[in-house]
Amino acid sequence: MPLSTSPTSIRKALISAVMLVTALCLSLSISISTYLDVKEQKQLIVNKLNILAEIIAFNAQVTVLFDDRKTEEQRLKSFEKIPLVKNIHIYAIDEISNKAVFFTSFNARKTPPVPLRVDSIEQLQQPRITEDYVELIKPITYEGDIKGYVYIRGGLERLNEYINQKILIDILLTLFVLILVYFVAKRIQKRIADPIDHLSRLLQDVSKNHNYNARAPKTNITEINMLSNSLNIMLTRTQNQIERHKNDKQEIKQLNQSLEEKVNQRTIALREANQELLTTLERMHQYQNQIVESEKMASLGQMVAGVAHEVNTPIGLGITGSTLLRDKLAEISLGFEQKTLTSSQLKRFIDNGIENLDLIYRNLNRAAELVSSFKKVAVNQDGEINSLVNMHELITNVMLSMRTELESKAPKIVIHCSEQLMIESKAGPLQQILQQLLSNSVIHGFKDNQNNEIEITVERNESSLSINYYDNGIGVDKSVKKRIFDPFVTTKRGEGGSGLGMHLVYNLVTQALGGNVYFDDQNIEGTRFIITLPLTEASKL
After folding, report:
1. Which residues contact 482 (CB under 8 A, 6 or more apart)?
2. Helix segments in 101-219, DSSP class H
3. Cα–Cα distances in angstroms (integers) from residue 68 to residues 9, 80, 96, 147, 148, in the given order
4. What is the pLDDT of residues 293-339, one digit of tens each?
5. Mode of pairing for the β-strands spanning 527-534 and 100-107
C-alpha cells in the first residue's frame, strides 16, 4: 500500500527547498571551517608548548647537573607573564635508582598544583590534549645522556573563548544569510509560481467547459514556455481529434448499414460450413471407434496367444510324461499277469516312473506358477493397509532376499537414498516392484558377470517420491520398447521369461500405489525406469 502524503504547493516547496539547502550548506561549511580552525589553533598551542619545553630543558641542563634548584626556580618564575603556561615540573634522574625524581616546579597564579607525572613519562612523550589542558614531557639531555625531564601543562581557556566567540559570529552570519535567501526565494517563487497558477486555471477551464480553443500565453521562463507550447499542441491535436471523431461517426453509421448485409451472408455460409464439419467429425468418431476396437481385439488375441503358449508347454509335457508312465505301467501289468516280470524290468520301471513323475511335477508346478502370475497381474492389490516404510531399509531387505539370484551376474549395486527417508505407503507392492526390476536386469539386462552395475536413486520432494532405477546392461530391444508394459511381451520366450514382469510392475505402480512409471526410451546405454509415487499427508510431515 503506497504511503499517503499531505498535499503541498509549489510555493511552499520552493521556499522550503531553498531554505533547507542553504541551511545545510551553511551548517556544513561553518562546521568544517570551525573544526579545521580549532584543530589548527590546538596544533599552534601544542607547537608553542613544545618550543617552551625545549627552551626550559636546554636551560635546565646545568641546574639539574649541579643540583641548583634555587636558580631554576627563579628562572621558572619568568613564565608568569605567559598565560598559556599553567604548571611546570622538572624531574632529575636519580644516580642510584636511575629513576626520575622531583627536582622543582612552577604553578601559575590561581592554578592548583598537579600530581607528579613521573609514572607517565613514556605516555606524555606525545602531547595529551584534553578539554581544558594540553600536557607533554621533554627530556633534558647533556652530551647525549638524559639527565632529567621537563613536564609542561598549558591551559585552553583562551581557545575555548575563541571557539565560543566564533560560534556566535557564525550563528549571526547564518541568520543573516537565511533572511537574505528567504527574500530572494520569495522573489523567485513569485516569478515561477504565477505562470504555473495561470496554466492550472487554464486547464481547469478546459476540463469543465471543454473549451479546446483556449491557448496558454508566453512567459519569460524558458521551461514554462516549453510546457505552454506542449499544452497548446495537445489542445490543438485534441480539437482536431474531436472533429475527426465526428466525421468518423458518420462514416461508421454508413458502414454499419452495409456490414449487416455482409454479416447475414457470412452467417449463412458459416452455418453450412459448420454442418459439413459436424458430419466430418461424426465420421471421424466412427473411424476412431473402429480403430480402438481393432486394437483391443489385437491386444486380446496377443494375450490369449501368450497364455496359450505359456500354459500349453508345461501341460503338454505333463501329458506326455503321464502317457509314457501309463504305457510302462501296462507293460509291467502284462508281465505280472503272464508271470514273465523280471526284477530288472521292475527296477527300470521304477526309475523311469520316478523320472516321469518328476517331469510331471515340475511342469504342473510351472503351470501353477504361471497361473499365479496371471492372477497377480489381474487382481487389484489395494487390500494392503498403508504403513510407515523406511525406503533404505526396504531396498536393503529386497537385495538380501534376492542375494542368490543376484550372485549369478554379480552386479555392483549403488543406492542413493537417505537412511532416514520414511514414507507412509504399502510395503508389499514396493518390494514386488523392486524384485521384478532386479530380476529383469539379471534375466534380460546382463549377458555375463563382468562390470555389471545397478543404480537406485530415491528422492523426495514436497508432494511425491521419485525412484530412479538404472542398469548398464544391453538395454531393451527396439521391437518391444513401445510395448514394454504390455502382458506377455518378452525377448526370452522359453528361457525363463513369461513377459508378465513389467506388466506386473505397471499394475502395482498405477493401481496399488496410485503412481506413474516411465520407461526412458531416449537412454542410449542400459535401461532406466522412473517411478513417481504420490505422498500421503502423513508422509509430508
Report:
1. 521
2. 157-209
3. 82, 21, 19, 14, 13
4. 554 454 455 455 555 666 677 787 778 877 877 777 887 888 788 87
5. unpaired
As given in the structure block, the three cell numbers for residue 333 are 501289468
d(CA 497, CA 439): 10
Low-confidence residues of the chain, pLDDT below 50?
Answer: 1-2, 292, 295-296, 298-299, 302, 376-380
DSSP 491: S
The two most distant CA atoms of the chain are separated, in Å, by 168
Query: What global pTM score does this model have?
Result: 0.37
- At 121, list the grid cell: 613519562
Instruction: Characterize the bridge pairing of strands 464-471 and 527-534.
Output: antiparallel
What are the angstrom distances between the C-alpha of 152 and each of 59, 114, 121?
A: 14, 11, 12
SS3 463: coil
The letter for the amino acid at 351 is D
CA distance 119 to 283: 115
Q: What angle do CA 435, 440, 444 make, to 5 degrees?
A: 160
Residues comprising the chain, all counted? 541
The three cell numbers locating residue 371: 497361473
Question: Which residue blocks in 441-494 are alpha helix, DSSP H?
Answer: none
* 3-class state of residue 493 by DSSP: strand
Decide: 217 and 228 in contact? Cβ < 8 Å: yes
DSSP 8-state secondary structure symbol assigned to residue 125: G
Predicted pLDDT of residue 459? 92
Non-local (6+) Cβ contacts of 306 within 8 A are 487, 488, 499
Take residue 104 and report the three cell numbers written for it.
622543582
Beta-carbon neighbour count of residue 470 at 10 Å? Answer: 21
